[in-house]
Design a protein that fits this description.
- The protein is of the alpha/beta class.
- It has 2 domains: 85 residues, Histidine-containing Protein, Chain: A, CATH 3.30.1340.30; 72 residues, 2-Layer Sandwich (Histidine-containing Protein, Chain: A), CATH 3.30.1340.
- It contains 6 helices and 6 strands, in the order H-H-H-E-E-H-E-H-E-E-H-E.
- Strands 1-2-3 form a 3-stranded mixed β-sheet. The protein has a 3-stranded mixed β-sheet with strand order 4-5-6.
- A hairpin with a 2-residue loop joins strand 1 and strand 2.
Length: 183
């Protein structure tokens, strides 16, 4: 009974809506299919880019507005940049392509990014496993195997233990110490 009453109340509310509110609701409803098409186009473009150069595609953002595709980010070479633009144009439903990418031959590979993410997890796990170490006050960053520890600890001994533990991990190329001791 409560459900039926709720539906009746909602229906009354819809009937009582002003013309302006109804038009706004209709505009939102009619905009949804366009947004869905744009989202589908973005996925299709991103998928096609990944078949050309997975590493560059991970560093490129794809935005679509009413069928107009905008590419931003970094690609490995001018040839990849051209291939990405051509690939985006080849997708059915794409009206235009704006290429805002830049060439960076040192674009990080997906493997490098995944390796750094795995190393962050390994460092965090090691720090948490250390007895008496409050790892939550120390943030970990990793780039190409270089670990940065940033935060505060209560003693010099704790700091040394943390640094030694991280330096001993497989995959760590070096440690940047930004740990402050604050008793």
């Amino acid at each position: 009974m409560k459900f039926v009453s709720l539906i009746a109340l909602m229906s009354l509310g819809l009937v009582a809506c002003s013309g302006n509110a109804q038009r706004t609701a209709q505009n939102l409803t009619s905009a949804a299919p366009g947004q869905a098409k744009d989202a589908a186009l973005a996925v299709a473009v991103k998928g096609k880019l990944a078949t050309i150069d997975l590493d560059s595609s991970a560093a490129v953002n794809v935005a679509v507005n009413d069928g107009a595709v905008t590419l931003t980010g970094e690609v490995r070479s001018p040839a990849v940049r051209k291939q990405f633009e051509d690939a985006a144009r080849s997708i059915g439903g794409v009206r235009s392509v704006q290429d805002g990418t830049t060439v960076n031959p040192k674009v990080r590979s997906v493997r490098e990014s995944a390796s750094d993410a795995a190393l962050v997890a390994k460092v965090a796990g090691t720090l948490l496993a250390q007895t008496g170490i409050n790892a939550l006050k120390v943030k970990t960053g990793v780039h190409n195997g270089m670990v940065t520890l940033n935060g505060t600890v209560a003693s010099e001994a704790t700091k040394r233990t943390m640094l030694d533990s991280v330096r001993g991990l497989n995959g760590v190329k070096g440690v940047v110490d930004r740990i402050a001791v604050r008793p």
